[in-house]
Amino acid sequence: MSVIALDLGGSHIKFGLVENGQLLASANVAVPSSESFEAVLPIIETQVE
């Protein structure tokens, strides 16, 4: 089974794709800390695709 993990920090979002306990891909994306969660959703969508 594949799992997408997100770490929503104040100025960065970290992404990880894990399958069977093994990290297959990761990304660390900077986001403006002044942005609302709603404004950050398109960034998350782009990375998950």
Written account of the structure:
With 49 residues, the protein is α+β, with helices and mostly antiparallel strands. The protein has one domain. Helices cover 24% and strands 49% of the residues. It has one helix and three strands, in the order βββα. It has one helix spanning 37-48, and strands at 2-8, 12-19, 22-30. Strands 1-2-3 form a three-stranded antiparallel β-sheet, with helices on one face. It starts with a strand and ends with a helix.
Note the topology.
Layout: E1 2-8, E2 12-19, E3 22-30, H1 37-48
Antiparallel strand pairs: 1-2, 2-3
Radius of gyration: 11 Å
Count of DSSP H/I helices: 1
Tell me the series of helices and strands, N- to C-terminal.
EEEH
Helix share of residues?
10-25%
Please tell me the total number of domains.
1
DSSP E strands, number: 3
The gross shape turns out to be: elongated
Quick take:
By secondary structure, this protein is an alpha+beta fold. The protein has one helix and three strands; from the N terminus they run βββα.
From the structure above, extract its key features.
49 residues, 3 strands, alpha+beta, 49% strand
